[in-house]
Structure formats: C-alpha cells, structure tokens
Amino acid sequence: MGDLFSGPHLILIVLILLLLFGGKKIPELMRGLGRGIREFKDAKDNVTREIEDHIRDDNRARTTGTTNTQSSQVSSGPSVDKN
Question: How open is the CA angle 21-22-27, to the nearest 5 degrees?
C-alpha cells in the first residue's frame, strides 16, 4: 500500500492549505492546533495523576486498615445539650 504521507503527498497538502487559508492564516491555525493539543495533553495528565492518587490513597488505606469514608462520622440525629 505504501506510505500514506510521502514527499509528493505532503507537498500537495501544503499547497492546498496555502490556497484555502492563505499565508497569514496558517500560523494562526497552527498556534490554535498547538494550544488545543497542549490543553488535551494537560487534561490527560491531570486525569492520570488523579487516578494514580486515588489508587495510592486506596492502597495506603488498605495497608493501614483505615478508610477515607465518612460513614463512621454520621450521627444518628441532632445532638441536644441538656444543661
């Protein structure tokens, strides 16, 4: 099948982009594309970091025998001070 993006194909794509958008718009498009890729990568890294933190916290809780749930802190009703 060959290479999908060989030399002549890339030249043709660049020429079509120049015709469609002009020389002034291409740098703006590339900047926007770069920003979008960077934001996507940052979001992916944040999700990965959060998942790893939760896994680490769960493992730490298992080894110490404690959990991070708040079910043990729930009271049966309002406390009344009878003084």
Answer: 85
Asked if residue 57 lies in contact with residue 68, where contact means CB atoms within 8 angstroms, the answer is: yes
Sequence letter at residue 74: V
- 18 CB contacts (<8 Å, ≥6 apart)? 26
Q: pTM score, two decimals?
A: 0.50
What span, in angstroms and rounded, lies between the C-alpha atoms of 66 and 83? 36
Amino acid at 9: H
pLDDT digits (tens, 9 = 90+) for 29-80: 889 999 999 999 999 999 999 999 999 999 998 888 765 554 445 555 555 5
